[in-house]
Amino acid sequence: MPSQPSKILETFDNPNRERDYTIQIRIPEFTCLCPKTGQPDFAVLYLDYVPEASCLELKALKNYIWSFRNEGAFHEAVTNQILNDFIAACAPRFMRLRAEFNVRGGVYTQVVVEHRAPNWVAPQLVQLP
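Given the sequence above, the corresponding structure tokens read:
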């Protein structure tokens, strides 16, 4: 049976819970509808997160993203909703979602939202010579 859009996000156990590491996901085909005009809005989503106990499963993530295709949403609202749903699904140590929407009427929109778990401290960046 072919995949269908779905708001259900699945996870799997973090295979290296003892270590901070970053998962980076690029989603180049996000679409939703402008709530004012009904015209499609297109965006590239960039998700960076440091998992805690679980990680987002990619097939479910694709179906989740697909579920917005026929929904009207302002850029700011949909970006925050997606981040909130991701946090609810996997409770990461850190998560950042950047949504870069394509031009509409000569205007580009970029929305960046973040989450930090309480008591999580980002590791220091190592500068190599």
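The chain has a mean pLDDT of 96. Try to locate this feature in the token string yourself.
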